[in-house]
Every structure is written in structure tokens, then in C-alpha cells.
Design a protein that fits this description.
Layout: H1 7-19, H2 22-32, H3 34-39, E1 47-50, E2 54-58, E3 68-72, H4 84-104, E4 109-114, E5 129-134, H5 151-165, H6 186-202
Antiparallel strand pairs: 1-2, 2-3, 3-5, 4-5
Length: 204
């Protein structure tokens, strides 16, 4: 909250938020969200893919060349809030994009990475899938130091999780099919290139 906002104004804002319907609150949050503004086109970006539900843009602070952010257009704060059928589509898209990005940039692998919550490294209040091209000795720090697990603790965690998940049935949903566009003509490629150049000029 800005420093120049008085306690009375803060109270008024809190009261308005409290009286909002879930739909109004979701709309309000989306209006404040940087990535919602990007997905709606209000903030320019280097968009490399888009369909009805998601947009993929190049990260302006990349871990590696080609680091891409795959973003649902509808506002979800974390991955856990996304409906199962939609989540399936997102990860199908992430995998397809990862293959194309790695091949195009001649990377030897790629990470599909999710930071779910601040303690996991999430620094924006919008669900994001990171797609990061990888090469040997690229200094991208996504590895952790493995250590021998304590048998007693492993048994305790196993009992706790197995008990909690007992009887859980996860239905297999049919993911949406990605339809690739037909090969563009030379004229269409020229138009698309000009459009990208115009968009790049808008980016500060």
C-alpha cells in the first residue's frame, strides 16, 4: 500500500474488498496483475505463442536464452487453483513449446518449472510455467544437493501421505489438441515479420 494513503482510505478500501462478490474480486485482482495486463495486450511483450487460453512470452530476465513464460489468460494465483482439464492443456502446450524452443535454439534439454508459492520461489501473484532451454555447464541453478534420507523420517512421511491419499481417484482427462497453423506464404511471413518489428519498437 502506498505511504501517502491514510488509515481512513485503507479502511475504506478494505471495506470495499470485503463487500465484493467473488466475480468482482477476481476482476479487481486481474486489473492489478501485471501478467493479466500482458495477456490482454495492455502491456507489450515478446509473444511467441498464443491460443484461446494461454500466452507464451519471453522472460525479460531470462535464466537462459529462450527462457519462456507460459501464462494462463484467466487469473489464477497458483497452479493449484487451475481446473484439471485446463491444467492438462497447459502442460501439453508447455511440452510442445519446450520441444520447439530446444530444437530452434539447439539446446540439449529443457526444464518445465513451476514455482508454486513464495517459499518455492514464486515472485508474481499469477500462475506461471517456466520453460528453460538447457545445455551442459550453462550455470542455470535449478539443481539441489541430494542427501541420504533418514529411514525413520521417510517411513513417517510415507505413512502420513499414503493415509491421506488412500482412496483418491484422479480421473484421466482428455487434453485439448494443439492444431498447428498451415505453412505461411512468403507474403504472410513478410506481414508477420513487420508486425513483430512494430511490437518490438513498442517495448521499452
Amino acid at each position: 500500500m502506498p505511504k501517502n494513503v491514510s488509515p481512513e482510505q485503507v479502511k475504506e478500501i478494505q471495506e470495499k474488498l470485503k463487500n465484493m462478490s467473488p466475480e468482482e474480486l477476481k476482476s479487481f485482482v486481474a486489473q492489478q496483475c501485471l501478467f493479466c495486463q500482458i495477456s490482454s495486450g495492455k502491456i507489450p511483450s515478446r509473444k511467441i505463442y498464443e491460443d484461446d487460453d494461454v500466452i507464451a512470452i519471453l522472460d525479460i530476465n531470462p535464466a537462459a536464452d529462450g527462457h519462456t513464460l507460459l501464462i494462463p489468460k484467466e487469473h489464477y494465483q497458483i497452479i493449484g487453483q487451475i481446473p484439471d482439464d485446463f491444467l492438462g492443456h497447459i502442460f501439453v502446450v508447455a511440452n510442445k513449446l519446450g520441444l520447439v524452443i530446444a530444437e530452434t535454439l539447439q539446446a540439449t534439454g529443457y526444464n518445465v518449472f513451476v514455482a508454486n508459492g513464495a517459499s518455492a520461489g514464486q515472485n508474481a501473484p499469477h500462475a506461471i510455467i517456466h520453460i528453460i532451454p538447457r545445455n551442459e555447464n550453462d550455470d542455470v541453478g535449478l539443481m539441489w544437493q541430494a542427501h541420504k534420507g533418514d529411514e525413520q523420517k521417510l517411513d513417517s512421511v510415507f505413512d502420513n501421505l499414503a493415509s491421506k491419499l488412500k482412496g483418491l481417484i484422479i480421473k484421466k482427462e482428455q487434453p485439448k489438441q494443439i492444431v498447428y497453423r498451415k505453412e505461411e506464404s512468403k507474403e504472410e511471413k513478410k506481414v508477420e515479420k513487420k508486425k513483430r518489428e512494430t511490437e518490438r519498437k513498442r517495448i521499452p
